[in-house]
């Protein structure tokens, strides 16, 4: 490795006193004019801007490598992206029409239901006024085009996101919006299970009202929460990337148990304040949690249960079925519901420990919720770090093919080239790609992809689904709480389990007082009906109105790797890595950081030892 | 979308490559004496504490980090901006002509609540160069600013520090006006930031059990 | 990996950054020292002008622990007061409280800042007690065990009479439910309970609930001293109530059965 910058990094810290006072200024250097011709060869090309790839790109650049980071989409973060309402509907709608696209092809069975109830017959009149009335709805209900014109500029242009700044100002033919409205109101989906009303002119109005405020929504394709303590938070803190991001603590975790949702006591304070757990149960639960924090220290307690189901071990700790459900669903929250039953004691204890160690840092739970959407924002933040250190970014890249030229002795001097539809060509020594790019690889280099269905629903509701149905809650101006609700397998129709997340204006998910509910189910035999019935169960007690519900199916792609525990597919003598599809139904992002680290380490193998995302200077608190 | 109360102001600088965005930030923040500065990693963002109407506010000025070159500035860059500085080079007419699309792009991506009153500031940079090279007249620039609802306009030189301080003072002032009531212990607690300090101290020690 | 540097952009290494960091620290320190000497000069010369005032603002925003600066600042304020009408002086005091807000954010346990607040409130035309209580609420939200905060709260309540003992009792309920390992909160609760519930019948009912509350705390966390101390205090309120004493003893015995190792045994022996 002859890169001078990287070589410097490997040197021991020089004695600070030896540096001259005339060393280069610490801050920004004037931007040099853009090079006349772009470099066309890079140390690495990274395809796909999901979180794993974005962390990897940043790490490579920080180790002195030149990186070209590309996405075929016009947005960052692939399956972790978050969108305004119009863009989400447009993308899911496009997906239904374009199943050949490797990204859009992962989404189908898209249906939208809009609340069509007439305001005059509303049974919720005694309740807080929900979203502000739309500004002067067109009186001409038969002319949606007129209404479309009333939608402000930004809504219209949202149909064509990220126009090149150098092009003409956003001016989109209103036909697009008209088409959208027509598509989502007249081709009304068969979701009568949720909504008793048939499509009416009123439902068109309802949809228009929502579309008008489209930009106030940030709707994630794959909602995520983050452990307050863990490798990912450490990475955010040490790499400096955390400075680009903002979080709020998750307020509560709920469990759907015995036909109703109840708060799971996840911390000591929750246990203390819980009115429905007896004193003796409290002590048993606390005793167990105290053990779990440092479970490795007393291996004799769980030795006999190694490899056996976690639930069985919990039973042996004299925990009641209800407490077992609490422990499983609160502390092993991030596990997909259907996988809980196969969780072993060691795995479970590790998860419970991780959970407990994340408590008490911020807020009342072990988790953070990122403003605007965790996956989307974290990915973009790592991309920014990469760009700051010289990485080149091209979104909306019209990729045509990936070419690999192998030298005579296979696995030797591989050069990877990517070609755009206009003939532009970039080459690199290494390639990292997400599954959406596999089909551009030569057939002999492609990993085998399988797919698994994840059923998702994103619903916009008019208030906190955990709030009381009386008006008192609306009197104080609190926003709906940020919550996760676990529906264990036994609570759901066919026994696969559903996970639901409620987000609010506090994390910029939606306008004030409204809430966004994301639901997902992914076990074998799961279906749209699972998420719909969970939504209904969640919404009903509060009397909240579902303003819009979009359901769809996600095909999560699985790369078949050499070893079961390995997530990354390697080929061409470790020159090409295919990373994991990140858009599953699990809730956490820890795996992305771990995976990026392993890709980085294997790619840098043989080079001088390079640190994975070394710390950056923190000028803030270095007072003498 | 400046909807929450805070004393940290996010300012983003937009404009074509080479108009001097980064140099302007650098000139403004890295001044000698009486003002402290913090530069973060690479060409990232700079923070500067300024007094506006007897109040100390922290201004965080964000650079594009070069992601504008292939129109790949993600929406995250624009989030929560309190003021947008549009920069062009008075000796390069093309950089002036693209101001319109930079402004539109900002309004689209940042989607401020009140787009008509969102504070922009326009800087015509590189006025230190000889007059014969000048391609955009002051009158032309001011007319454009008037048409866009009276955007404050300054002619600057990052190189010779002409009017840089003055223009950023206006940036700070107008950004702060967006923040109707800056109160420290407001009803909306500040969002959590994860920075190096957090990493070292690790919040409350141990678990709550 | 081949390693030609294709990029014109700088790639700073960790070492370069460390050096840059060092330079920044040096510069920052120089700036700070410059500020200090400027203010000191003003102070010596007894110059109470706007420049001096702004310099102390800057300096105290950087370092709230610089207590002589707070003193100087108060001198300036008193000087200004002679040239101000009441309304302007009130506004000055309010902005002074804002400055102290910011300083407390840097160090919530700064004696000098709490002291400055107190001085302002005692010297302002209309003391802003409501604002003060709101601030205290936030402070204790962030760190419910900040004893400066609790002590100051007692001062504010006593000086302002803004809240009834009952309201303060409810306030401690809220804080204890957030974190019951909080000696300051239990202690304050014991003080306000006696004031809030003077009527014997009502007090007896409240005390019943208190035993229940503290039993929950003890069962949740037997090792927590503050709950045991509060229970002891509760028992001291009913020295003759043998039913109560034996009921509590029973509960503790039950706990010992589940938790033979815990400290409660010792305490029970002490009580029994």
UniProtKB/TrEMBL annotation, chain A:
Residues 1-41, 117-175 are annotated as: Disordered. Residues 1-21, 117-127 have a biased composition (Low complexity). Residues 149-158 have a biased composition (Basic and acidic residues). It comes from Geranomyces variabilis. GO terms for molecular function: GDP-dissociation inhibitor activity. GO terms for cellular component: cytosol; nucleus; Rab-protein geranylgeranyltransferase complex. This is Rab proteins geranylgeranyltransferase component A. InterPro entries: FAD/NAD-bd_sf, GDP_dissociation_inhibitor. Belongs to the Rab GDI family. Residues 22-38, 162-173 have a biased composition (Pro residues). GO terms for biological process: small GTPase-mediated signal transduction; vesicle-mediated transport.
Automatic annotation (TrEMBL), chain B:
Keywords: GTP-binding, Lipoprotein, Nucleotide-binding, Prenylation. SUPFAM superfamilies: P-loop containing nucleoside triphosphate hydrolases. GO terms for cellular component: late endosome; vacuolar membrane. Gene3D superfamilies: P-loop containing nucleotide triphosphate hydrolases. InterPro entries: P-loop_NTPase, Small_GTP-bd, Small_GTPase. One of its GO terms (molecular function) is GTPase activity. It comes from the Eukaryota. GO terms for biological process: regulation of vacuole fusion, non-autophagic. NCBIfam families: small_GTP (TIGR00231). Belongs to the small GTPase superfamily. Rab family. This is Uncharacterized protein.
UniProtKB/TrEMBL annotation, chain C:
GO terms for cellular component: Rab-protein geranylgeranyltransferase complex. It catalyses: geranylgeranyl diphosphate + L-cysteinyl-[protein] = S-geranylgeranyl-L-cysteinyl-[protein] + diphosphate. Keywords: Prenyltransferase, Repeat, Transferase. Its EC number is 2.5.1.60. One of its GO terms (molecular function) is Rab geranylgeranyltransferase activity. The keyword Repeat applies. It comes from the Eukaryota. It comes from Geranomyces variabilis. Belongs to the protein prenyltransferase subunit alpha family. This is Geranylgeranyl transferase type-2 subunit alpha. SUPFAM superfamilies: Protein prenylyltransferase (SSF48439). GO terms for biological process: prenylation. Residues 13-22 have a biased composition (Basic and acidic residues). Residues 1-23 are annotated as: Disordered. The gene is BET4_1. Catalyzes the transfer of a geranyl-geranyl moiety from geranyl-geranyl pyrophosphate to cysteines occuring in specific C-terminal amino acid sequences. Gene3D superfamilies: Protein prenylyltransferase.
């Amino acid at each position: 490795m002859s890169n001078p910058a990287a070589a410097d990094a490997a040197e021991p810290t020089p004695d600070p006193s030896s540096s001259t006072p005339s060393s280069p200024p610490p801050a920004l250097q004037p931007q040099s004019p853009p090079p006349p011709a772009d470099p066309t060869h890079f140390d690495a090309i990274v395809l796909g801007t999901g979180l794993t790839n974005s962390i990897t790109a940043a790490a490579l650049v920080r180790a002195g490598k030149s990186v070209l980071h590309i996405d075929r989409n016009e947005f960052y973060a692939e399956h972790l992206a978050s969108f305004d309402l119009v863009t989400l509907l447009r993308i899911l709608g496009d997906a239904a029409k374009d199943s050949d696209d490797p990204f859009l092809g992962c989404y189908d069975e898209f249906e939208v239901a809009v609340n069509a109830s007439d305001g005059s017959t509303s049974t919720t009149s005694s309740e807080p006024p929900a979203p502000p009335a739309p500004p002067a709805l067109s009186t001409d209900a038969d002319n949606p085009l007129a209404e479309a014109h009333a939608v402000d500029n930004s809504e219209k242009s949202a149909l064509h996101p990220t126009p090149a700044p150098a092009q003409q100002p956003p001016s989109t033919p209103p036909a697009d919006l008209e088409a959208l409205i027509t598509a989502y109101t007249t081709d009304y989906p068969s979701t009568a299970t949720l909504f008793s009303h048939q499509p009416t002119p009123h439902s068109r109005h309802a949809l228009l009202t929502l579309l008008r405020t489209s930009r106030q929504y940030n709707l994630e394709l794959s909602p995520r929460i983050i452990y307050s303590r863990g490798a990912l938070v450490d990475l955010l803190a040490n790499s400096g990337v955390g400075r680009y991001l903002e979080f709020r603590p998750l307020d509560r975790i709920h469990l759907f148990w015995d036909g109703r949702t109840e708060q799971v006591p996840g911390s000591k304070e929750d246990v203390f304040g819980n009115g429905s757990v007896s004193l003796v149960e409290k002590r048993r639960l606390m005793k167990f949690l105290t053990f779990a924090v440092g479970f490795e220290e007393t291996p004799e307690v769980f030795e006999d249960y190694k490899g056996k189901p976690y639930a069985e071990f919990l039973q042996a700790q004299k925990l009641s079925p209800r407490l077992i459900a609490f422990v499983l669903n609160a502390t092993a929250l991030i596990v997909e519901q259907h996988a809980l039953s196969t969780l072993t004691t060691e795995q479970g204890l590790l998860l419970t420990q991780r959970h407990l160690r994340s408590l008490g840092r911020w807020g009342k739970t072990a988790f953070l919720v990122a403003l605007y959407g965790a996956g989307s924002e974290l990915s973009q933040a790592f991309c920014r770090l990469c760009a700051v250190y010289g990485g080149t970014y091209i979104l909306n890249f019209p990729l045509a093919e990936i070419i690999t030229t192998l030298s005579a002795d296979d696995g030797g001097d591989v050069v990877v080239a990517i070609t755009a539809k206009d003939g532009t060509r970039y080459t690199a020594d290494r390639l990292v790609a997400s599954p959406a790019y596999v089909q551009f690889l030569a057939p002999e280099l492609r990993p085998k992809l399988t797919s698994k269905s994840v059923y998702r629903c994103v619903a916009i509701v008019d208030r906190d689904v955990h709030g009381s149905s009386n008006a008192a809650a609306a009197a104080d101006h609190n926003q709906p709480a940020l919550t996760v609700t676990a529906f264990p397998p036994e609570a759901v129709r066919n026994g696969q389990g559903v996970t639901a997340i409620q987000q609010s204006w506090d994390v910029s998910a939606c306008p004030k007082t409204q809430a966004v509910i994301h639901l997902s189910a992914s076990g074998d035999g799961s279906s749209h009906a699972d998420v719909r019935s969970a939504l209904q169960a969640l919404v009903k007690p509060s009397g909240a109105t579902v303003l819009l519900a979009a359901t769809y199916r996600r095909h999560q792609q699985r790369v078949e790797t050499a070893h079961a525990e390995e997530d990354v597919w390697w080929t061409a003598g470790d020159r090409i890595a295919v990373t994991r599809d990140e858009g599953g139904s699990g809730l956490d992002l820890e795996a992305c950081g771990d995976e990026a680290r392993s890709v980085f380490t294997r790619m840098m193998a043989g080079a001088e030892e390079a640190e994975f995302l070394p710390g950056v200077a923190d000028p803030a608190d270095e007072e003498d | 979308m400046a909807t929450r109360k805070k004393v940290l102001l996010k300012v983003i600088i937009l404009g074509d490559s080479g108009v001097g965005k980064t140099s302007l930030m650098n000139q403004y923040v890295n001044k000698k004496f009486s003002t402290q500065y913090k530069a973060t990693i690479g060409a990232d963002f700079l923070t500067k504490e300024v007094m506006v109407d007897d109040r100390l506010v922290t201004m965080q000025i964000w650079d594009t980090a070069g992601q504008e070159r292939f129109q790949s500035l993600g929406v995250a860059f624009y989030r929560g901006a309190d003021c947008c500085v549009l920069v062009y080079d008075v000796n390069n007419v093309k950089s002036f002509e693209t101001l319109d699309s930079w402004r539109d792009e900002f309004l689209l991506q940042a989607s401020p609540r009140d787009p008509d009153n969102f504070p922009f500031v326009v800087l015509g940079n590189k006025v230190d160069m000889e007059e014969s090279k000048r391609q955009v007249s002051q009158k032309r620039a001011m007319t454009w600013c008037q048409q866009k609802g009276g955007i404050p306009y300054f002619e600057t030189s990052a190189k010779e520090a002409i009017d840089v301080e003055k223009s950023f003072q206006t940036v700070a002032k107008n950004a702060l006006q967006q923040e109707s009531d800056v109160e420290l212990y407001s009803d909306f607690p500040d969002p959590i930031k994860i920075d190096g300090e957090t990493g070292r101290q690790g919040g409350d020690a141990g678990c709550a059990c | 990996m081949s390693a030609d540097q294709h990029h014109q952009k700088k790639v700073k290494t960790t070492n370069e950054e460390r050096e840059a960091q060092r330079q920044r620290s040096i510069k920052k320190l120089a700036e700070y020292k410059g500020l200090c000497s400027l203010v000191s000069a003003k102070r010596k010369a007894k110059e109470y002008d706007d420049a001096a005032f702004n310099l102390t603002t800057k300096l105290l925003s950087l370092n709230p622990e610089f207590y002589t600066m707070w003193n100087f600042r108060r001198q300036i304020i008193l000087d200004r007061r002679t040239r101000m009408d009441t309304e302007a002086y009130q506004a000055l005091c309010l902005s002074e409280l804002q400055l102290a807000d910011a300083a407390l954010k840097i160090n919530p346990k700064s004696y000098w800042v709490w002291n400055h607040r107190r001085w302002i409130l005692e010297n302002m035309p209309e003391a802003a007690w409501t604002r003060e209580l709101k601030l205290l609420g936030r402070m204790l939200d962030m760190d419910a065990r900040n004893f400066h905060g609790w002590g100051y709260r007692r001062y504010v309540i006593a000086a302002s009479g803004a809240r009834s003992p009952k309201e303060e009792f409810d306030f401690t309920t809220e804080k204890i439910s957030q974190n019951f390992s909080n000696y300051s909160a239990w202690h304050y609760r014991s003080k306000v309970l006696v004031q809030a519930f003077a009527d014997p019948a009502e007090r007896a009912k409240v005390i019943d609930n208190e035993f229940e509350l503290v039993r929950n705390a003890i069962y949740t966390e037997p090792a927590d001293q503050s709950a045991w101390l509060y229970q002891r205090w509760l028992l001291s309120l009913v020295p003759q109530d043998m039913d109560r004493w034996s009921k509590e003893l029973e509960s503790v015995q039950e706990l010992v059965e589940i938790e033979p190792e815990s400290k409660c045994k010792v305490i029970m022996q002490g009580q029994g």
